[in-house]
Amino acid sequence: MPSHRYVVKSSVEETMDMIKLSQSTSTPIFDEIRTFGDGKKLATLAYERYFFRASHRAALFITIHNYHGDSEVTAISTGSSDNLIFNFDWGAANNYIKSVKKALSPVLISETKIDVPN
To answer: Model-level pTM?
Structure first.
């Protein structure tokens, strides 16, 4: 399950809009932005995409916040297969994460891969 954290030089709203545009071929599952005191914001996005090349489905979960000043994006993707014997995503989850990084590339400050325990 690929997971990455990005620090960007755009507002939470601008970052959310960039990601939404980049996911136009995905099905939006959830979309919310919340405002807290002192201008702190938290946006949450969830998408699903079906990859026809091998009957695979992938999900993408994204949070965006500005709790520490710069906007920080956490993207987590997971994939599955409709195959009864093998449940591989054949790279669908990694491709989904790459679409987020590509969308953020004009404003990207740093990227960190997050190690997720199995």
So the answer is: 0.85
